[in-house]
Amino acid sequence: MLSNKINSINPSLTLELSAKINKLKKEGIKVYNFTVGEPDFKTPRYIIDKTLEYLDNGIVRYTDTSGIPDLREEISLKLNKCNHIKCDKDSIVVSTGAKQAIVNSLFALTNPNDEVLIPSPYWLSYPEMCKLTDCKPVILPYNENFKVDVDILNQYKNSNTKCLILNNPSNPTGVIYSEEELLSIGNWAVKNNVYIISDEIYERLSYDKEFISIGSLSDEINEITITINGFSKAYAMTGFRLGYSCSTKEVSKLIKRLQGHITSNANTLSQIAGLTALKDESDEVEKMIGEFKSRRDYIVSKLDEFDIEYIYPAGAFYIFIKIDQFYNSTINNSLELCNELLSKYNVAFVPGIVFGDDKYIRMSYATSIEDIKQGLENLKNFIVDQKI
């Protein structure tokens, strides 16, 4: 008898879609793939060069479980200076990606049957992470701005509520919370003794206004906030698998204890790469961010031209497109619509049901502008065909 817990974890609903994409590619068919959740840029050269230097010198030993002290110091300096979060290096635990940092945090904060509030639409791994840690995911609806607010939180909070996962900027919508919205949520969490896991992995990809970390808004809010971040999105370092958490020393001590029995330290070379990314940042990073903004602007202009609804993405590199108006006798949900777009129009999107909202599909613009232009033209053809 294998594990009941792992068997209860939902497999990805996009596996079937991925198999079809690969099949079409093997047949020599060009697929305009907007499902990818990683930058299409190369890791900046200055990061690669420094990592190779350490590899050539054989500096690939174990590190402290919580990470190389210099890296943790650099992260804390970054959080203090750029995010205005009060912390020091002992607040930081470096992990194998932001994913592990979130799971570590859930293990450290929750007990069996504690409830974790997850605003929808949500990143698909959050509910499954809760199941792994024996707590209960509670999915929240969104307000007219596609965000969670205190009125919604009050409706769903009870004596078992332990924490709130806040993804800002959001995957899949790209929405960003304002200072006023964050302060309201943070004060509510303090008042109700609810922890906040603030997933800020897309913070650098904020296009229209300055990003604000919820942990920066007051000492009381910072005390109950675990800030999650990493290097994958801003520095095109997805394969390095490097993330971190910032929390009180009490929480970070538990996270370190847990991690010591699972992965020990994050990959040493990845930590060197992360340290280099922060200390010696080049203009390559800002150029990449500028290119994402340019792509975003082009896509929203075309969707406006197509007269199709979407959630305006102020950050990240996704756009959530409303498609339920195209449901009919043969297309009943977002997965079937994505299959239709792929099989007949050679464009691949992620169905919104994966993120808890079946009325939408997610488009990633982490791909070339040439592919974006042609892919949107194919989407337009689909829209026109539905009106015939």
UniProtKB/TrEMBL annotation:
GO MF terms held by the record: pyridoxal phosphate binding; transaminase activity
Q: Which domain of life is it from?
A: Bacteria
User: InterPro entries annotated for this entry?
Assistant: Aminotransferase_I/II_large, AspAT/PAT-like, NHTrfase_class1_PyrdxlP-BS, PyrdxlP-dep_Trfase, PyrdxlP-dep_Trfase_major, PyrdxlP-dep_Trfase_small
Annotated CDD domains: AAT_like (cd00609)
Task: Please provide an example of a Pfam family that matches this protein in its UniProt record.
Answer: Aminotran_1_2
Q: A single GO BP annotation from the record?
A: amino acid metabolic process
Span of domain Aminotransferase class I/classII large: 30-378
What's its EC?
Answer: 2.6.1.-
Tell me where the signal peptide lies: none
For this protein, the record's PROSITE patterns field holds: AA_TRANSFER_CLASS_1
Cofactor names from the entry are: pyridoxal 5'-phosphate
What keywords tag this UniProt record?
Aminotransferase, Pyridoxal phosphate, Transferase
* Stated family: Belongs to the class-I pyridoxal-phosphate-dependent aminotransferase family.
What name does UniProt use for this protein?
Aminotransferase
Q: Which organism is it from?
A: Finegoldia magna
Origin organism lineage: Bacteria, Bacillati, Bacillota, Tissierellia, Tissierellales
